[in-house]
Amino acid sequence: MSALRVVLRLKAANILLVFVAVQVVCIVMGLCFPRSFPYLSLNHVQLLLKSMAPLAILSIGVGILMISGEFDLSVGSNCALSAYIMAMTYNDGKGIPLLVAIALALLCGGAIGLFNGVITTRAKIPSFIVTLGGLMIWRGVLLFVSGTATASFETGKFAGAVFTGSWNVVQAQFVWAVLIGIGAHMLLEKHRLGNHMFSVGGNQDAARAIGVKTDAVKTKAFIICGMLAAFSGIISSARVNSVSPELGKNMELQAIAACVVGGLSLMGGVGSILGILLGAALLATIRDVLTMVRAPGLYLDLFVGVLIIVAVIFNRITRNKDV
Amino acid sequence: MPEAAQQENAANAVPETPIVAMRGLTKRYGSIEALSDIDFHISAGEAVGLLGDNGAGKSTLIKILSGIVPHTSGTILYEGKPTRIRSRNDSTAMGIETIYQDIALVDDMNIMRNIFLGREETNALGFMRSRSMRKKAMEVLEHTVGISGITSPEQIVRGLSGGQKQAVALARAVYFKNRILLFDEPTSALSVRETDKTLDYIVQLKGEGISSVLVTHNIYDAYRVADRFVVLSHGRKVLEVDKAQTDVEELTRFVVSH
Known about the structure:
Largest sheet of chain A: 2 strands, antiparallel
Structural class of chain B: alpha/beta
Number of domains of chain A: 1
Radius of gyration of chain A: 20 Å
Number of domains of chain B: 2
CATH class of the largest domain in chain B: Alpha Beta
Helix content of chain B: 25-40%
Distance between the termini of chain B: 17 Å
Oligomer: heterodimer
Helix content of chain A: over 70%
Strand content of chain A: under 5%
Distance between the termini of chain A: 24 Å
Number of strands of chain B: 10
Largest sheet of chain B: 6 strands, mixed
Structural class of chain A: mainly alpha
CATH topology of chain A: ABC transporter involved in vitamin B12 uptake, BtuC
Strand order of the largest sheet of chain A: 1-4
Shape of chain A: globular
Number of strands of chain A: 4
Number of helices of chain B: 9
Shape of chain B: globular
Strand order of the largest sheet of chain B: 6-7-8-3-9-10
């Protein structure tokens, strides 16, 4: 009883209940129809855990920024460009060392975030517009640099294990997503910077009046978001040992969807990392189940679209009830 | 009493070096002069009513004192020494805290986080010492403010009444040992009872040596707590008078007719 109360007091209680319900349905279906709906097969569990990680990491970055009151629509292009830079400079072992290439990719992602942050806060242009521009610019740069060719690379044993290792149900990518989630949770809930992020997103004027350096806080959120986008690109390309110029397309919208489903407010100042992770996991599960039952792609869009609207309405209702 | 004599009288009544004094302060926004040649001071343990109609320059004066906008010309003295208030940090260092009319709290954050916002207690890595902040928030809410209905520092501010929010803003101002509180329309969002409590509290603070500047439209509110009144009109000071030498009618006349 008290355990239930603890769960219900979580900021992400709504999404947690929905997530559990979806999982229960899938598991029951998996038990009843193990052949046509192999939800519980090791193969499938591995695949699901692997595939949700890049979206989860991307969503954490987008979510931190949304809590700070800004948007980043350029994360999909950012993750592709940054990953491509890693693949290009590493050049299958003929270029710079892999670790340096990864650092370079993270630097590239962070620099794009810094760019977004500086333009947004200094030129006072809504981040929606700045990063919509970025979405096209960075994809354009990538297509120019890559000549639309996919870059393949071989990571080697160690890096392969670090980024794509698979031991029974433990998946390296999933572990990364969880570790980043824990780090982000510590940042938002326990760290001064996180406190400032909530304040800037919740009431920028109040935060400024009390002495919070709102522009600096937002710019830091943009940089974190950019670096996580780059990292998401790295681990999703490490999985397939290649970077396609199409990598990360539409991911910005899925990440925002995951955040909204996870209980974040589009106005900023509200949300939790647990919610974001569950939102991303829910989207990934739905995507995966629809694939498994061989539903045409349009169902995914349809489903996710409905889910977003329902989630926002649901959050609005339950939030007003708290008041 | 003629106006000039009243002003002289009030000026003579300055007992000691004021905490903060402005001399010939002017603020221009482009070609508009929001404040012209203002002399203004705040001494320890006094409450000053800063009155005037909309656009008189009251808010500009408060913003200059709190470091949000810089002044154009003139001098600011802190304990008799010339100084500049360039940022919120400068005003904080002088012990000046502003309590805004729209109550500058973040609604979606809890009380504790609002009280310590921008001044979080952290370890060397920047992680917050939540337990210690929680304890202090509880103390300040219980002992300093004592407004009913606040049960836990973890309550989200959105659910509080106007008076409770004001109490949280006050708790924040008081906890950080400020010497001068600038109230920008403190009672405009409050119920009658809450207004009463807030005004009582300003009087109580005065007894503890904390000065207040009360910016308000409501002359009755100001008259209840202030010891001295300054009336602004179109960016100029048109009256400065001690409470003993004036009444609500005269103050109203100056606010309305200048």
